[in-house]
Amino acid sequence: MRESSVSISVVLSTYNAVAWLEKVLWGFNAQTFRYFELVIADDGSGPETAALIEKMRSYVFYPIQHVWQEDEGFQKSRILNKAILAAQAPYIVMTDGDCIPRADFLEVHHRNKTPGYFLSGGYFMLPMVISEKITSEDIDQQRCFSLKWLKSQGLKRSFKNNKL
User: Fold this and answer.
1) CA torsion 5→6→8→14, rounded to 10°?
2) Whether residue 7 is found in the same domain as residue 88
């Protein structure tokens, strides 16, 4: 993808969470909107994170920038600022390294963006036992976003889960 074709920069924060980051990177590879870059704001992760990013570059269609800073305690705001400065696109979407995006995540942002305004979204935190079961195939096929699939993996009925 040519740099000039990038219209969204996704700034994604992470810290020593390789298994979750990999799932998120697969989620961005399933996006219906293709004109974006991913800028990883790394608050001092070890070499495993850099190795994963390097490996994933050969699998994903989108460009990845890895903006890293030394681990000096929780400095998320500082690394996010550095990542924003590195972003190439005029529109920035911010997310976390443990939030797997639905395939239409960036499409919805792109369709609803309005100059002078910002969009705010939310996430649904799954129980750890279900999160750990999610595979790259579940992400690619979007099964992990289906209430039926989530229930088949053990998601309990609750008031909170009615939002799904």
Assistant:
1) 160
2) yes
Looking at the fold, whether 29 and 102 belong to one and the same domain comes out as: yes
DSSP label at residue 142: T
What is the rounded distance in angstroms from the CA atom of residue 68 to the CA atom of residue 148? 39
Which tokens go with 94? 């911010």
pTM of the model: 0.91
Q: What angle do CA 66, 34, 93 make, to 5 degrees?
A: 55
Structure tokens at 11: 């700034």
**Which residue range is the domain that position 115 belongs to?**
3-123
DSSP code per residue over 67-103: EE----SS-HHHHHHHHHHH--SSSEEEEETT-PPPT
82-133 pLDDT, tens digit each: 999 999 999 999 999 999 999 999 999 999 999 998 888 888 889 999 999 9
